[in-house]
Amino acid sequence: MTGPTTRVLALLELLQSHKRLNGTEIAEMLGVDKRTVRRYISALEELGIPVTTEHGPHGGYMLVTGFKLPPMMFTHEETLALSLGLLAAKTLQLTDASPALTSVQAKLERVMPEHIQARARSITQHTNLLLPDSGLPQEQSLLMPLMEAIESQRRVQVMYVGKAEPGQQRELDPYGMFYRLGHWYIGGFCHLRQALRTFRLDRLTEVTLLKATFERPLNYNAAEQFKQSLCAMPGNLKVRVLLHTDLDTATRELGTSASILTQEDNAIFIETVVDSTEWFAWWLVRLPFDFTIISPDSLKQALRRRAEQLMSYC
Question: How many CA atoms lie within 13 A of 267 on its CB side?
């Protein structure tokens, strides 16, 4: 989040979408301290926005009941975020959602001031995003029913087809979804396996919404659960490699695999899980910048063998 004006507008949106927020909650959401929150509240009051302040351990801030907010207002940063988000969704070719995306863009442009509207249209017309394929058509057709099940916290029955397995019916409590390297995934509790599982959508041929409901675990994150399950797979090795370059250069070089990059202070690391150190050593050799293998030792040995093999060609 950038300057104070943007944060004040963000605070107004937060108060509109929440019945009551305390100073600590607002400070965390805006990335400021509680003293700054009080200053932003005062700024809203000076603009004529009636904010009620309740003191005490259970107090907080809220808009006066019945107050009607002015039409939607967008900063240049918000316009950029909205336009790029819509453009990314279109580029991913979510065919079922294409008419909805066009409708959303038209509605947003109608409430934008002329100069902001021109910025949004320019981004749409003159900006291109090179993204990985959005997956197979059957994945796209399953997105809406699965998202509905996640929102309503209702169990689903799916037909799962493995690489070399016949179709198998499973009941799943869908907790969340994520998108990775051109494919959609759904994570949740599999009643057949009685454990958390992740399924790639192109392996599902049917989705039926059931009446049974569930409680989603607090702070569940489908992508994080997927990463943890990879680490726990027998035979897989956790890899950590220090890259002697900056984050922008590493991100450009790794492209769609940039999600395996982590940053600690000014240091850039590759952190991932592999089932073949020989293959990963070959992949590392292709990088155009220096690196240092932190772990595991078996990867260091594989890289030495690869280096000796390359030297033998000279």
Answer: 10
CB 76 within 8 A of CB 6: no
Block residue for tokens 């066009």: 102
Distance set, CA 6 to CA 3, 32, 103, 112 (Å): 6, 13, 26, 16
Structure tokens at 243: 């890259």
CA-CA distance, 82 to 86, in Å (whole number)? 6
Query: What residues have CB less than 8 Å from 139, skipping those under 6 apart?
Result: 183, 184, 201, 202
Q: How confident is the model at residue 94 (pLDDT cuts 50, 70, 90)?
A: low
Listed residue (149, 183, 184, 188) closest to 170, CA to CA:
188
Which has the closest alpha carbon to 61: 36, 6, 29, 24? 24
Structural tokens at position 204? 């599902």
Whole-number Cα distances in Å, 238 to 224, 273, 297, 307:
15, 4, 11, 22
The residue-averaged pLDDT of 85-113 equals 70
pLDDT of 258 strictly over 90? no
Strands 267-274 and 237-243, bridge-based pairing = antiparallel
pTM (global) more than 0.90: no
